[in-house]
Amino acid sequence: MKNLVTGTKIILAKENELYRKYFSKFLESNGFEIIALAGSDEEVFELLKTNTPDILIYDLCLTSGGFEKTIRKILATSPSTKLILTGEFYSVLIENAMILGANGFFDEDVTDLDLIIDSIKRISLGEVVVLTREKVA
User: What end-to-end distance do the CA atoms of the chain give, in Å?
Assistant: First the structure.
């Protein structure tokens, strides 16, 4: 499945700079193209003005105006972008995010890198994936 995602363009938006640096290298080593890194809400929206990623991996702790408003704004700004949210698992939050149009959610406690890569690939092909410590949905 690796060759199906070669060139898939990703913006990685995570609060932690070290995480952004190393996770972006890991994604690149698995065939994804990292087109930008962001560490704040403001950076994400500036990047979306000039970039159209296939996937935006977005850390929910970056939201400054509430996650529902942020999801709506991301999808209105870049409607063709698949949105993967990351953060702490709350079932109501995830359900609402999926209703609003998010394509995936990765619990911050998930550490299986192969599972994460497989899930990103599945999302790039149009599936909706939720990763939690306990299960994949």
Answer: 19
Length of the chain: 137
- Domains of the chain (ranges, CATH numbers): 2-131 (3.40.50.2300)
Cβ atoms of 39 and 13 within 8 Å: the answer is yes
**Both tokens assigned to 136:** 């994949």
User: What is the reported pTM?
Assistant: 0.92
Q: Express each pLDDT in 79-106 by its tens digit.
A: 999 999 998 877 788 899 999 999 999 9
Residue 120: CA atoms inside 13 Å, Cβ hemisphere, count? 29
Cα 114 → chain centroid: 16
